[in-house]
Specification:
- The chain is mainly alpha-helical.
- It folds into two domains: 5-88, no CATH class; 91-119.
- It has seven helices and no strands.
- Helix 2 (13-35) runs antiparallel to helix 3.
Length: 119
């Protein structure tokens, strides 16, 4: 039986996150059973995916209605800083791109060939 959104709206954000985590674990177990041909009812995968989407929708509605709740929930989950500050600390992507170019010799050759054509 699937979860209904009206039942989820009565829960707090922390409870909804725990529900999503449990549903994702269930989905993983269902997929594992399916690949080993032990899952009898394959409709469980679809129902679980839809339940996850339903819970995420209720969470998003709640965060849109009260953005301050997002910071409180992040602190309650163990984060010391608001989510906006942690995003600014991520490293730039430029070193990864440089590493890809260094790993791809054909890119170097095409750059050299284009430089030769220009001169």
């Amino acid at each position: 039986m699937s979860i209904e959104a009206k039942d989820l709206r009565g829960n707090d954000a922390g409870e909804l996150r725990r529900t999503v985590r449990k549903l994702e674990e269930d989905l993983f177990k269902h997929r594992l059973k399916k690949t080993t041909s032990q899952l009898e009812n394959t409709m469980l995968i679809r129902q679980t995916r839809r339940d996850i989407a339903r819970v995420n929708t209720v969470l998003a509605e709640r965060l849109r209605a009260n953005p301050a709740e997002a910071n409180m929930a992040a602190k309650a989950d163990g984060a010391d800083e608001p989510a906006s500050e942690t995003k600014a600390e991520k490293p730039a992507k430029a070193p990864k791109e440089a590493a890809k170019k260094a790993a791809n010799p054909s890119a170097k050759q095409s750059a050299k060939q284009s430089a030769k054509k220009e001169s």
